[in-house]
Amino acid sequence: MIYFLAGVAAIAGLLFGYDEGVIAVASPTLRADFPMSALVDGFMTAAVPLGALIGAILAGRLTDRFGRRRVLMAAATLFAAGALGAAMIEALWVLVLARLVLGLAVGLAAVVSPLYISESAPLSIRGALVATYQLAITFGIVASYLTGLLITGPGSWRVMFAVGAVPGFLFLLGLLFLPESPRWLVLRGRAEEAADSLTRLRGGQAGVAAEISEIARYAGAETKADTGFAALLHPTVFPALVVGVGLFFLQQLSGINAVIYYAPQIFNHAGFDDHTTQVLATVGIGTVNFVVTILAMWLIDHWGRRPLLVAGFAGTAASLLLIAATLLLPSLLPSWIVIVALLAYIASFAVSVGPLPHVMMSEVFPLRARGPGMSMASVSNWGFNFIVVFSFPLLLADFGLAATFSLFGVICIAGIGFTLLRVPETNGLSLERIEAHLRSGQPLALLRPTP
Fold this sequence. Notes:
- Helix content is 79%, strand content 0%.
- The chain is mainly α.
């Protein structure tokens, strides 16, 4: 059942990936029907992360009040409605509104899906199961790019948008067969339901009583302390907030969504002006993103979080700076290096910087602040996502691709320092053990699994 739960919850990631990537391949035929300026193009594209920012702000309180499963069901409904609305628009402002609805669904699901998986998964495979959300994002991006190859002709953008409604309905259907998070049920004083939920998730009663007892012990202490957003400023919780917010800040300013949203335009600026070549290269990027994320699911629970983050930030920085050098020195470096370096960048991101912020934010917050904490981490995610996606066409026009990628590369170098100074190693530790370290008042970065 836990694998089914992870698979269903991860459909939220597939929907986000599809809605993120489809705009890149739908844009040519969309612009033929609705010509737009660079400013309007940037806002229309960035409407999804803007809506997601709103959804992330709402998610913390909603999930604490109504539970993880119900909020995901609401998100699934919004996914389907937004996709169908985008397909039927007759004016650009309606498309912006539809993409805001899709963004709202993305923002809710991006908080609740990793949270739901993390609170339900057994310790030994928690990291891998939470990473299925990021894997699903990469699959959704590949699916959107392939849709752009298969569906062509005038007005094809409508069909591309409408296809996104199908997984939305499947997401809602799958959630009907899943139990609520056992940790949320314990926090709400519904221990018997929590035991039933955990029994279903574990496939039997072995060890369930002990696990429920440990959860209840920490939940009992939580009710005597500050809860909700107020708890995030408590000295024992604030370090977790710094990690959650900081990792998403660095993830987004690494430039990943500029690459995903504008990949064909990037190849055009690099000298590949044939549209088919641009789309095929973009599909290659999406495929590498997907395949390497599968590798990341294994490495997260074997190498650990910190080493993987350091390696990922180093790889993305080197790749981005190589792209910038190639663009600045076209007489010395051939243009094909841009494609190779972009693939290396995507691989470095997918194995580390992509999935690990989602995993870390689902682990570092104590139970009483987990919903609001993940909500604020997602606010960082979507806020900086919006800034990058909205500003990228303007940066491209004013400063050029080389300068923009150099900026992203420097930020990735800063990510190495942040990881070494602030990020704990949570591999092999229960959520309750991580919470106990926070309560001890010791620096969060000193947290390590017991040998």
